[in-house]
């Protein structure tokens, strides 16, 4: 992580722990929000949204667990970045993804704060950049 401080890492891990029991509902909520905000993204996903949810869920869990292992985080982000490039994902999709996913995490987090509002987009933008989709700061 280039821009995420230790307190922010703790916030990200903390909110992930808090929502762990609702993860599948959260990811389903995320896809509803994503397809509402950007219907064109629907075309990128296979019919079987459930298996897609599971992959994304496991992926996010791994990324958060790897927050203190930058090399592992970077290698993994590069690997899934290539899958996304091959699938035709664009930087513009991540511009939609970051605020939409943050809104879903917020909706399922009982003790969300202004600091979470900052930390989550920073985390997701850093991951996007490592995946090869750098967003404008
Ligand atoms: C931090 C953000 C994201 C993470 C962690 C993530 C994670 C993943 C993972 C783990 C896979 C499965 C890869 C594999 O099977 O090898 C995947 C597939 C995919 N993701 Fe993402 N994703 C993210 C953002 C996005 C965004 C913004 C889009 C834009 C629409 C997107 C579109 C896709 C597509 C099209 C596939 C392939 C689906 C398929 O072929 O079945 N992802 N993603």
Task: Give a summary of the structure in a few sentences.
The chain has helices spanning 6-19, 23-37, 49-65, 70-87, 91-107, 114-130. The protein is built from 6 helices and no strands.
Report what the structure shows.
The protein has one domain: Globin-like. Helix content is 72%, strand content 0%. It contains 6 helices and no strands. The longest helix is centred in the middle third of the chain and has 18 residues. The model has no long low-confidence stretch (mean pLDDT 89). The site of protoporphyrin IX containing FE has 19 residues, from α3, α4, α5 and α6. Protoporphyrin IX containing FE binds next to α3, α4, α5 and α6.
| Largest sheet descriptor | none
Which CATH first-tier class would you pick?
Mainly Alpha
Q: Write out the CATH superfamily name.
A: Globins
* N to C succession of SSEs: HHHHHH
From the 3D structure, determine the CATH topology.
Answer: Globin-like
Residue-averaged pLDDT, rounded? 89
| Range of helix content | over 70%
- β-sheet strand percentage: under 5%
Number of strands: 0
Radius of gyration: 14 Å
Overall morphology = globular
Q: Supply the number of structural domains.
A: 1
How many individual helices?
6
What is the rounded distance between the termini? 15 Å
- CATH architecture annotation name: Orthogonal Bundle
**Structural class of the helix and strand makeup?**
mainly alpha
Low confidence ranges:
none
